[in-house]
Amino acid sequence: MLGLMQSQPLLISGLIDFAERHHGDAEIVSRRVEGDIHRYTYKDSATRARKVAGALDGLKLGFGDRVATLAWNGYRHLELYYGVSGSGRVLHTINPRLHPDQITWIANHAEDQVLCFDLSFLPLVQAVHARCSTIKHYVAMCDEDKLPKDSGVPRLISYEAWIGAQSDSYTWPVFDENTASSMCYTSGTTGNPKAALYSHRSSTLHAYAAALPDVMCISARDAILPVVPMFHVNAWGIPYSAALTGAKLVFPGPAMDGKSIYELMEAEKVTYAAGVPTVWQMLLIHLSANGLKFSTLRRTVIGGSACPPAMIKAFNDDYGVEVLHAWGMTEMSPLGTLCTLKNKHDALPEEEKMKIRLKQGRAIYGVDMKIVDEAGKELPWDGKTFGDLYVKGPWIIREYFKGEGGDPLVDGWFPTGDVGTIDADGYLQITDRSKDVIKSGGEWISSIDVENIAVAHPSVAMAACIGIAHPKWDERPIVAVVKKPGMEVSRDELLKFYEGKTAKWQIPDDVVFVDAIPLGATGKILKTKLREILKDYKLPVS
Known catalytic residues? Predict the structure, then answer.
């Protein structure tokens, strides 16, 4: 027997409609590429999103056609989020930090029909457009009077002229909630990048779950600064969760340095922020160097890569900001876990609470997870036994776009490529990527643990640990280190710093000081590139 409730599809257009109707005067503030501050409301955003949909109709785009963006976090990008998906097309956010050859390959593989871009990416578009065979329309996200003359880009129009002639009375179409809504390519797989193709249903469910109190705890009382890019896994779903709750949005645009982020936070009374550790490191350095404090910031979600304990402690102890440690991936839309304490943890000493906060957290509703051994046997949740992490759920990938890479699932579970432990309370701790874990004398060494200790040293800005072949022990860890500006630390001093903080056999054999550690397009450490840089390195003879 079926239930007798109304059947109404979960569509992304419903989110912006809700925000317009119930939170129409809530603000959306953006620092633009031009450098000025733009502000308007959800009502304005919804009106212009409908104009985007009408403009796409005017281009005769078909249902399911892909519309690409090369854009920073800003109000026009948000309008495309809703106008493209809401009209039944697929939003394809391209990471502008990728190499032009990769961008060309991705655009062609996605068969993008339209490319909308911020003017700061005009040189990139000029470099790739001749090789992007499917793109028929180019839209510069600017006012008509800012449209560059003789750009060399064919059929280039300005965003404001493009949507300006459209009616704001567009009616959103109603269709199957499993229809594709957006796509994001991941470089975290072998071979060419592969695309995760999200649906209206999966993105709406993810938005609901992400807003829950034990997850991001987003509400209409928040002013949210998503520093995580809108071109990276839909900014962790924040543009959707913010509309669902009516939270104020503050977009940083291209200014991602510590000073710019801090000034925007203070000016707009930001209560909540989200970003990767490399961005927050710049912010903390700016705060420390200038003796600054936060006046309104209370919580920050940190994900993308493991957050160093020193960063969590600095936010918590020095600035009174709660860090919500998160884990996920492009194939998961992206949230899988988020670390908040349970009621029974309130009475624990602070050092015990910190041990929990350092973990990646508990699975959020909608995500199931398990750890398995090499034979695929499920392992116990004891907080000690580590294995390969598998996940499944309604916003987790079933297969990649166009079937690239074949069937990625194992008995219905998606193998994440991460290695970790899960404790009796369900808290996940990622110990490494499976390709980065170091095997030494039959025992495993977590490169993340080695890095976290190094970063805790007051003179260290960034650290990356890799394994080096060893004739006796198979592999031994070394740590590459970037020193903070004006600070000094020697190899011996840093190795001594490890004593008492980890087992002796887990202390790295050497420290290599470098000017910079290679980062990927999403701010993660590129250990493949680091291994290439250090390919001629030889372990010291002991």
Answer: 186, 331, 439, 444
Alpha-carbon 302 to chain mean position: 9
What the chain holds in terms of domains, given with CATH numbers, is: 9-24+39-197 (3.40.50.12780), 275-435 (3.40.50.12780), 439-533 (3.30.300.30)
Neighbouring CB atoms inside 10 A of 349's CB total: 8
Distance CA 75, CA 72 (A): 9
The model's pTM: 0.86
Residue of 319, 373, 316 whose CA lies nearest to 339: 316
- The region, left, alpha or beta by phi > 0 then psi within -120 to 50, assigned to residue 520 is beta
Output helix, strand, coil percentages for the chain, rounded to the nearest 5. Answer: 30, 25, 40
Q: Which of 85, 15, 91 is nearest to 46 (CA)?
A: 15
Splitting the chain (542 residues) into consecutive groups of 10 residues, what average pLDDT does each group show? 96 98 98 96 98 98 98 98 98 92 95 98 97 98 94 95 94 98 80 91 98 97 97 96 98 96 98 92 93 98 86 94 95 96 95 93 97 95 94 98 94 94 96 77 78 92 89 85 93 93 87 90 80 85 62
DSSP 104-157: HHHHHHHTEEEEEE-GGGHHHHHHHGGG-SS--EEEESS-GGGPPTT-S-TTEE
